[in-house]
Amino acid sequence: MLATGNCIVVKPSSEVPISQVRIVELADEAGIPPGVWNVVNGGRAVVSGMLDHPDIKGICFVGSTPVGRDVVYERCGATHKRVIAQCGAKNFALVMPDADLERTIAACMTSFYGNTGQRCLSNANLVVVGEGLSEREHDEFYKRVVDMFVDAASRISIGYGLDETIQMGPLRDESKKERVLGYIEKGIEEGAKLILDGREVKLAGDWPETCFLGPTVFEEVTLDMAIAKEEIFGPVANMMKARSLGEAIEMIHSNPFGNAASIFTASGRWAREFQYRVECGNIGINIGIAAPMAFFPFSGMKDSFFGTLHGQGQEAVRFFTESKVVIQRWF
Predict the structure, then answer these.
(1) In this predicted structure, what is the pLDDT of residue 84?
(2) CB 309 within 8 A of CB 315
(3) Predicted pLDDT at 199
């Protein structure tokens, strides 16, 4: 934004504002002129002021789909502002029969449980695909993947997040833990089978369990269950099966979100079919977190994104600039 000649007004989350405040302090120390990089704190009243202010020409938002779609996107349309609204997610990871399972499971641990599952690119639903396998072979392959996944998840060290020996820290606060616990209870009520219970957390060190929750794994999950279709934003993984790659892709398409999807395979043909057919903005091939580099747009589709141009890369430069067309004739 600065590189394209704009001033910035950042409204951090009222629940986690410290990092943005520190960044603007560093910008001030670096000599950025006063008024160029600004931070305003607050809640909905501040957001409403930004959405309605005539001197603000564009809004970038990251948050939930209801707020992004029904508040930010709709209000920006009414006030004639450009908008990038990056919203919710429910990401799928597909495991094909030819996948390198050791590397796949390792990638899944960081994808499902890195940052305690509190990031928009975390995978949530793992689909074990039986393309080319008999029903018995598919069942055996599925069991092998699930057993390896649960074994690896159960060995994740949980504790103080700044300790380099720790692999997973706490959830953000008590309210977020209660929200995830509610989804675990909902999954049980809807008939899913809990095969790794993160509520029985074992901490590495003498820490209060207030905000900690261990890796959680469900089996016998159906697409209509809340745990399968809604964003939990916590360390909860759902195990599913699909007979073919086509069926697995349709499972992804049945979900309203389109943020990210990954496939683990050694087949270039399956990888190409997946990347061209799946309706998601960020695609991972043998990658658990499909995070684009800064010079590529952070894409998103369906209920995961509202707007025209995405954040990062050339699209962000276009968003923060006005283009002119000059027609000339000289005599």
Answers:
(1) 95
(2) yes
(3) 95
